[in-house]
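Working notes for the structural subgroup meeting. M.R. asked for a predicted model of this chain before we commit to crystallization trials. I am recording the input and output together here so anyone reviewing the notebook later can reproduce the run.

Input as submitted:
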Amino acid sequence: MTIPSKGEANNCSAGVSPAVSGASRPRFGSVTIRDRGHLPHWEKDSATYFITFRLADSLPQTVLQAIESERQAVLKTAAQAGREPSADERRKLQRLSTARIERYLDSGAGACHQKEPAVANVVMSTLRHFDDKRYRLLAYCIMPNHVHVVARLFPGQMLSSVVHSWKSFSAKRCNELLRTKGSFWQREYYDHLVRDEGEFDRVVRYVADNPLKAGLQEWPWVWVWGQDAPTTAAEDGGAT
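Returned structure, recorded in token form:
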């Protein structure tokens, strides 16, 4: 993977090791389990997260319902036994949230508005607006119908508030550009707490590789910390 200097778009190729090796290595510590009703989440103040959010039309409702039904079956089994989900069950829940969904996303479902450079530029500028203020961006990839981000939150910042800020501001600007109305992003998002350096390397490599694995050659909207991010015309705007 070659990451150009500032002012140039980023290109993605098969060699991702330099990008990954140049990424920041956050410090990892103890975590707390929180339950949002669907998945048990491991959360920590000032934590590093791998986050995915998707365009509103990127997944058919039937697919979401099938995945949710499988999730609920796993959680019901644990609840009936009067216990928290086991390690194996947590891994199954995680796979339901990632592998199956990613397969649909990478197939190019929906209108794929982020193929439009102006739309992708708004999303990128939104992510970068509070970089080094509320969080530190470590990697991101803006795919045609979804976004992957690896970020370390600063003390006192809530993940839900940060993601809401990204989605609300970018949705308004992108709807204006596209002259559309209604939901731009799906309400739900996926997040995974990065617990050690091995996981960190894996998720950054995943983000860097995603365009090529989806068949997108020379995809410009991928970046890893340690390299200059491209400048944009929209940098004077930002999320609230």
